[in-house]
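Researcher: Good morning. I'm working through a list of sequences from a screen, and I'd like to move beyond sequence-only analysis. For each chain I'm collecting a predicted structure so we can compare shapes side by side. This is the next one on the list. No need for commentary yet; just the structure.
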Amino acid sequence: MSSDAQHPYSQPASPYSQPYPAPQGPAYASWGQRVLATLIDSAVVAFVPWLFFIFAIVTSEVTEDAFREPTSEPSGPGYVALVVGSVRYVALWFWNRIHRQGTTGQSVGKKVLGIRLVSQTTGQPVGRGTVFLHEIAHVADTPLYLGYLWLLWDTQRQTFADKIMTTVVVREGNR
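Model: Good morning. C-alpha cells for this chain:
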C-alpha cells in the first residue's frame, strides 16, 4: 500500500470536521404552544355562553326549601339562558374543535399560534370524523395528565391521543 493511500479507518477523528446537513422533517409544535392554543380555544368557546350563565345567576330567585332554608333557583328567563348558553357552548366547541380543526387542521387557538393538527403519514388535515375520535382519545391522556405531559420528551411531541390517531401538531408551513 502506498504512503498516499488511506486506510479505510483513517477517517477524521471528529464527526464535526465534515459538515453534515441537518435532518429535515416537520417542526413539531412545543408543549407551550399546544397548552396556549387550548387556553385560547377554551376562552373563545366559553366567553359568550358564560354571559348567559351569569345572567341566569343574577336573575335567580331566592326561595325556601322544605326545611325553610333559603335556596336559589333560576328564574324563567334564567332557565332559558341556561339552555341557550349550554347549546351555544356545545355548538361553538363543535365548530371550533371538530369542524374547523378537522377541515383546516387549526382551531382558533392553533390558528393564532400558527400550528396545525395533521396526519402523521400524509401531513394533511385529518377530517372531522378523525378529529372527533381524537377528542375522545384524549381520555387516554387524562390519568395523572401523563398523556399531555408525554409530549415533553416524545421525539414527535405526541400525546397518547396523537399516537392512537397517528396525528402530529406541527408549526405552520410544515407538512
